[in-house]
Amino acid sequence: MNNFNFHVTTDIRFGKDRLEELPEALAQFGKKVLLVYGGGSIKKNGLYDRVTTLLSEQGFDMWELAGVEPNPRVQTVKRGADLCKEHGIDVVLPIGGGSTIDCGKAVAAFALSGMDDPWELVLGRRGYTGPALPIVTILTLAATGSEMNVGAVISNPETKQKLGFGGPSMLPSVSFLDPTNTFSVNHYQTAAGSADILSHLMENYFSRVTGVDVQNRITEGLMRATIANMRIALKTPADYDARANLMWASTLALNGLTGVGKGGAWSCHPMEHELSAFYDITHGVGLAILTPCWMAHVLNEETVFQFATYAREVWGITETVPELAAKMGIQKLYDFFKECQIPMTLPEVGIKDERDFEAMAQQAIDHSSIATAAFVPLQKADVLAIYQACMTESQFV
Ligand code: NZQ
Ligand code: ZN
Fold it and tell me: Which Pfam families match (predicted)?
């Protein structure tokens, strides 16, 4: 196990009927609030009315950054930061899924960064050491873990880039996790968000660092819990415990708990971010498509033990021949995503031909360290082969 720091100070307020704590959570930073939200889901499910009524009764002044896109745009970050500067905002309050929260985090940082161009901030990647406005979030979709981590992922359609960046000041101070706020998430987004949780767990799980039993056993448990509760939530969207378990899994999958002590680079996320950058697809769906094909591509003599362990611990596979067990584990994941009605080929999400594969594969290499530090290092030809394998349905056993 590698050395690590684990210092994640977000004050999590988990559970239903806790919204009345919001004024106190915000007031520690001031009374001028920037509400950040997406395309209107919070207006449809009544959360917007509940928050704005409560805050105006308590004497808060509110400004709004509305219409944050899934795969949030750098131009929207600029719009939000301009509002912060113009009105002397004290605290940023994103209400939504990962896109809204990421945008809020980027707004909070850019507003105080002293930079002229928000894209400059994003290009700094994980090295942002400057200040940010305080951030309080209300999560409405279990997926990214953005509610309890320092990262944000921002897209620039002009340059066809989608990049993660972040720094300590971008960690939310308080996050409200009320599972009832996710009851209205539709089947597609529930499946996509849960696939994202599973991907975060797998990206952390498959690592070259050994001696990490605690992290690995926690991660297997979180994977099993996510799979079981995903099945329930897809059938019964208002099942409180299923939504609660997905929500808590999303937070724990990417708040450091399962990744500390390991290091290395993720594999599927850098490849997926290029799919989203070029084709604006749903992040979790892109990951669901890529992950089984990636697993099959990197299965070899050195990795077979880890894939066989994953097959046994996550899917209960009892096959004793490691290579066959590993392949059965990959097939189980693929079949599970299909059962959840996730489109499992690139043409199904609008990527009909291979014309951008070269450029996307090159960017995946340029924008990350998958070529050197991934579980199995991936060169451009590997990324291309994985994209190509995702063009048609797959059979792994
Ligand atoms: O925009 P609204 O109207 O709110 O609708 C959203 C959006 O259309 C809808 N939605 C959210 N909550 C809802 C709801 N619909 C009904 N009821 C609710 N309660 O769901 C759609 C998708 O929302 P989005 O925020 O885009 O989804 P998600 O949470 O999956 O976030 C994806 C973004 O996060 C980035 C992704 O790359 C992508 O840009 N990521 C951020 C990470 C981080 N900060 O740590 C890590 C991740 O790996 C990921 O890269
Ligand atoms: Zn993700």
Answer: ADH_Fe_C, Fe-ADH
Domain final position from 134, 158, 181: 181
* Atom of ligand 1 minimally distant from the CA of 182: 19
| Residue 371 in tokens | 């070529």
Which pair of structure tokens corresponds to residue 192? 């996509």
Q: In this predicted structure, what is the pLDDT of residue 173?
A: 98
Q: Which residue among 101, 144, 170 is best mutated to probe the pocket of ligand 1, counting the most ligand atoms within 8 A of its Cβ?
A: 144
Residue of 283, 287, 367 best suited for mutating to test ligand 1, as the one with most atoms within 8 Å of CB: 283
What pLDDT shows up at residue 263? Answer: 86
Residues 147 and 203 in one domain: no
Domain co-membership, 140 together with 202: no
Domain housing 79? 11-181
Number of structural domains in the chain:
2
pTM across the whole model: 0.97
Alpha-carbon gap, residue 90 to 81, rounded angstroms: 12
pLDDT of residue 127: 87
Q: Is the CB of 180 under 6 A from ligand 1?
A: no
The span from the CA of 221 to the CA of 263, in Å, is 21
Q: Which atom of ligand 1 is nearest to the CA of 68?
A: 1
Residues 266 and 322 in one domain: yes
Does any domain span residue 204? yes
Ligand 1 center to residue 68 CA distance, Å? Answer: 10
CA angle 144, 181, 9 (to 5 degrees): 50
Of 120, 148, 181, the domain-final residue:
181
Give pLDDT < 70 ranges for the chain.
Answer: none
SS3 250: helix
Predicted pLDDT at 126: 82
CA 355 to chain centre: 27
User: How far does the centroid of ligand 1 lie from the alpha carbon of residue 281, in Å?
Assistant: 12
Identify the pLDDT of residue 125. Answer: 82
Q: What pLDDT is stored for residue 262 in this prediction? A: 95
Q: What is the pLDDT of residue 95?
A: 98
